[in-house]
Amino acid sequence: MKAAILSGPNMLSVNHLSRPVCPAGGLLVRVVCCAICSSDARMVLKGHQGLVYPRIPGHELSGVVDESRNSCFVPGDRVQIYPGLSCGHCSACRRGEPRRCISLKTMGFSADGGFAEYISLEESSITSGGVNLIPRNVSDSQAALSEPLASCINAQEKARVGQGDTVLILGAGPLGLLHSRLARHLGAARILITEIDDRRLELAGELAQADRVINIGMERIPQVISDETGSRGVNVILLASNALPVVNLLPLLVEGGRLSLFAGISKDLSFERFDINQIHYRELEVTGAFGSTPAQNTTALDLIAGGFPVEDLITKTLSIDEISAGIEHTNDHQGLRAMVCFNA
Predict the structure, then answer these.
(1) Rg, the chain, Cα only
(2) CA within 20 to 30 Å of 276's CA: 227, 287, 295, 338, which one?
């Protein structure tokens, strides 16, 4: 089979490998679509703390069951796959927190992922709820975007986004746009989204479903928030960019407001100081959000089946032989999501 193999930083090549075997109790899946996210691009170009070399990257994927040794699935089933691989037996798994599994692995980082023609899935992927049948009205490329939508669901559940909220989203990349659409779906009354990249500003105006797109190259966020909210502030801030200091965000929140640290902060900004008394006296909440659970992944696929829009976020489709162009498309912000399709 063909697979993209990362052997070191900026050392990605497409090679031929032996097709993996179908494990006992598991599945062998023929990959149909696997999206390229910004984490994939950074990992390929610069490495990643969770990466083990050599590695087949890719964690946003869908496919077709080629061989099954599990009674839940048969060959020909179209499936969407959650990338977390938990043991199912440790205390975290038993209390329903597979993200805290003591032996957690993630496809594309600590286990091989979806930039390959085939991927094998252990029985634990199935028993944890990590393999979902794709509804007939959902395309393979749409299904592959369940994983990033699930991560947004995780963050917004923790931040309790809901009816009547004014929400500020920092960053209008693919995940920022998903956040905007999800906040609207959850009943947010007003949505503001920021961006500085010219192309993404244009796309945000078309796709974000936001009430205002803020060009932070020309506008000051505090002034815009003051104008838009009558100096009151926003209920929720969702940090979907790793290039903004957290220290300046707390004053933008209303009393009891919630800040979600959805994006990992760049190292030069992650040690910024801020007044912790703001959290104390104003009863602010700061939550971290990383990844998602299998249940949230299933919820994301159900939302897409119900009409939640994701297809228009795919701005480039390419074959596995063209994956380097997809990495460039993603890293250089040439568009939004690039999608590797094995029938491309």
Answers:
(1) 20
(2) 227
